[in-house]
Amino acid sequence: MQESVLRERAEAEGRASAAARREARDRAAEEARSQRVASASGAAEALQRKHRGALKKLRQATELQSAEQLNEAQRAKLAALPSLQAEVEALAAEAAEAAEASRAVEEAAEAERRAEAARRSDEARAEAEEAARREEEARARWEESERRTAEAAEVAKALSVERFAYVAPEWR
């Protein structure tokens, strides 16, 4: 009896330890996914900021085209207009690619989360089946114990002194 209690406690501790390891692994995986998503979205945001800055410079340079008197720095900005336009177009393409890559990383992370949830669901189902099996085994052990106790009670009753009352007292 003591041995079975100790075994059950050890099994319970083992299950708790395995659950803690799974939880730690799941947290680490979620953190890694979050970092990948944050990195991809950060890169996309940085490119969008660069693109907005280049658009602002381009807008300022095009406004200088309508000005009548330009100083040296303004003429240099106006001369750089074609290169600014090319830079804006290139940054727009890069920002679009980075945004698409960021969305792809987010979708992949969400797919990983769904797969992880499905795996946890399968594990929970397996654990529930294992618990039901252990409960059934415990019930079978209890029924066996009850049967043995009933048999022992019958034997004790059969061997009781009252059953042998017809025997001479000196034989008892």
From TrEMBL:
Residue ranges, compositional bias (Basic residues): 49-59
Region (Disordered): 1-63, 96-151
Species this protein is from: Emiliania huxleyi (strain CCMP1516)
Positions with biased composition (Basic and acidic residues): 1-34, 103-151
Stated name of the protein: Uncharacterized protein
